[in-house]
Specification:
Blueprint: E1 2-7, H1 14-23, H2 28-35, E2 41-50, E3 53-62, E4 70-71, H3 72-80, H4 86-107, E5 115-116, H5 122-137, E6 142-145, E7 148-149, E8 154-157, E9 160-163, H6 167-172, E10 178-179, H7 190-199, E11 200-202, E12 208-217, E13 228-236, E14 244-252, H8 260-269, E15 274-281, E16 287-295, H9 298-308, E17 315-320, E18 325-333, E19 336-345, E20 348-354, H10 356-366, H11 370-384
Parallel strand pairs: 1-6, 6-11, 7-10
Antiparallel strand pairs: 1-13, 2-3, 4-5, 8-9, 12-13, 14-16, 14-17, 15-16, 18-19, 19-20
Helix pairs in contact: 1-5, 1-7, 3-4, 4-5, 4-7, 8-9, 10-11
């Protein structure tokens, strides 16, 4: 399975993503040919430097009249009849559809009649469809992405200033981890948000055999950070599960539930294999939580637990565990592709579990329950014969 990991810790926009994919090996001439039936634009690239790193800048030239608003119903028909490969069409419709639903909620209109404001222009159509075309060129089967930076302040639009993150960006990224680190400006655009939310699952860089990388630059060049998005392309490898692990624990009685998700994000980013919270009764009858993380390297996870929780100390001990051999397969359902995790021992398959993030993404795309997608994935696996 070909995997693309997106390091979007410095932000992402549609043009930045296209630039990174081109830098990773995408074909600009083939992209021009694929986009031509959709929109009349001139595509080019240039090489820029951002904080000492070379990066590709993706440039889209268009006529002034191409900046008119586009309704979702018309845009969907254009994409469907552009002669694109099936997976490109599906991915582009998923990304634009997600953004259409967010825009409709923000502006109080129907999905069919929503007029794309910041993404209705020719350049943004080229960015979003272009990214899907480039993913297909590179043979990418799955996309994984980091948490996204929230940014702050306001951004100027054709309708005046908008608070950052923009309303459409917030609507698209419902459920996606965002980090507020105080950096000013719009770090994630609606087009970048839609591509990530529709096409990617959240996570750190997977265990993979590296095939290439790319770096795409944004227009701004701030002094404090590199305004680039990085992608890494490769094939997933299932790392062997270690039998000996470190168990890192801390108990807290003054953390609210809203602080647990960012704590777990930090633990996993530090290398935790697993993390969970258990309700406990502490001294003086106070209710609390026991935060537990498993890791092969305890020190960075200890640091993350001390930094991102309210505890004043952690305990670490060694434990032995027995785990099944695990690998992933991809099945095609009527809702789209879904990865299924298989667990076996001594060559015998014991468990099959559809990946929840894939099922949730397909459920959002088709407006159905996650349970229906999970059932479809299991049925597709059985039809293919359990490997």
């Amino acid at each position: 399975m070909s995997t693309l990991w997106i390091d979007a810790t410095n932000g992402i926009a549609g043009d930045m993503f296209c630039a990174a994919l081109l830098d990773a090996g995408g074909d600009l001439d083939a992209l021009r040919a694929a986009i031509a039936p959709l929109v009349d634009v001139e595509l080019s690239t240039s090489t820029v430097r951002r904080h000492g790193f070379a990066a590709v800048k993706f440039n889209v030239g268009f006529q002034a009249g191409d900046h008119d608003h586009v309704h979702w119903s018309g845009l969907r028909e254009r994409i469907e009849h552009a002669g694109l490969p099936e997976r490109v069409t599906r991915r582009a419709l998923a990304a634009f559809g997600l953004l259409a639903r967010a825009e409709a909620r923000v502006h109080g209109t129907t999905v069919e009649q929503v007029a794309f404001h910041e993404v209705g222009a020719a350049d943004s159509i080229a960015d979003m469809v272009g990214a899907c075309v480039l993913l297909e060129q590179l043979g990418v089967d799955e996309v994984v992405c980091t948490a996204l930076p929230a940014g702050s302040g306001t951004v100027q639009t054709q309708h005046g200033p908008l608070d950052v993150p923009a309303p459409a960006t917030i609507g698209v990224l419902a459920g996606w981890p965002m980090v507020q680190d105080g950096r000013p400006g719009e770090l994630v655009t609606p087009t970048g948000a839609a591509l990530v939310a529709a096409l990617a699952t959240f996570g750190p860089m997977p265990s993979m055999r590296i095939a290439g990388q790319g770096r795409g630059a944004g227009t701004r060049d701030p002094d404090a950070w590199s305004n680039t998005v990085r992608v890494v392309l490769g094939e997933r490898v299932d790392a062997p599960s270690p039998r000996t692990v470190q168990v890192i624990e801390a108990q807290v009685d003054d953390m609210t539930g809203e602080h647990l998700p960012p704590l777990f994000d930090a633990l996993f980013a530090a290398g935790a294999i697993d993390a969970y919270a258990t309700p406990i009764l502490m001294k003086k009858g106070r209710s609390g939580l026991l935060i537990t993380a498993l890791a092969t390297d305890a020190e960075p996870v200890e640091t993350a637990l001390l930094t991102h929780s309210s505890t004043f100390g952690v305990r670490t001990r060694q434990a032995e565990r027995r785990v099944l051999d695990r690998r992933h397969v991809e099945v095609n359902t009527r809702f789209g592709a879904v990865r299924v995790k298989l667990g076996s021992e001594a060559g015998e398959l014991l468990h099959a579990s559809p990946e929840l993030v894939d099922c949730a993404a397909r459920a959002r795309e088709h407006g159905v329950s996650v349970a229906r997608v999970q059932a479809a994935a299991v049925a597709a696996l059985e039809e293919d014969g359990w490997p």
